[in-house]
Design goal:
Structural class: alpha+beta
Number of strands: 8
CATH class of the domain at 59-202: Alpha Beta
Radius of gyration: 43 Å
Distance between the termini: 198 Å
Mean pLDDT: 74
Order of helices and strands: HHHEEHHEEEEEHEHHHH
Helix content: 40-55%
CATH topology of the domain at 59-202: endopeptidase fold (from Nostoc punctiforme)
CATH superfamily of the domain at 59-202: endopeptidase domain like (from Nostoc punctiforme)
Largest sheet: 6 strands, antiparallel
Amino acid sequence: MKVQNPRVAEITAASPQGLYHWWSPSFFFAALILIFGASCAPMQSPSPDDQTADSGNSLRQRETDVVAAARKNLGIPYRFGGYSPQTGFDCSGLVCWTYEQVGINLPRRARDQIQFGQPVAKKEDLKPGDIVVFKDRRSRTGWHSGIYSGLGRFIHSPSQGKVVEETSLDDQYYARRFAGARRIPRDGSDKAMYVAYQEQLKAEKSASAANPGNDKAQAAKANKNNKSKAKNSKHPNKAGKAALAPAKSRKVAAKSPPPGKSMQAAKTLAATKP
């Protein structure tokens, strides 16, 4: 007579129908169905809110990377035409180099950077990584650019004899010359914009090659006008006085003789008459 294990007897008694004992084929069949069904269940796609959150995190990370790359160059000397930490930076060179570190190409000139990307209407809307541009007469090109770093400050390479520094937008000099700000898109459209910019540069070079003296003549004329304005600003009343002063006559009026000599000449003339 076969003796049944007491533990098995307890499990059998707890399951009156005896269909799903752990050792039965039906139990293993049910387990396989559960496992197979779980593995074939469709994966739930992320919700739009989750996608937006991921995109926002990526954007903030890109902005942080831009500012971090710019901060690494604090203290690097200014150099006109400079484009790297080894050679030094001018203002637009610093902006270009910084954005290249995050895979974005920008126009080289500050006057072109103000036309690139999306405009930022107000200073209050600025975000870290935005490009800020100023009209600066002391610059050789008349324009100056930098990178907004947050809290009302921006990183830039100011001018000859100075170094890359962080300055407040409320600084009196720059507050008066603020010309606007641009936000560089992170959706890939920056590449198409850069291609269009390169085409524009080619067209400008072709036009300059066709009229080589035109640019020099315009530059000389602008330089002459600037000197004239500067001279008049130093002596604002000089031109007015010159206009009101009477012109000197080329002919010198005959000098009249003194009264005594005139009477003596008259007497001598009368005595000689018959």
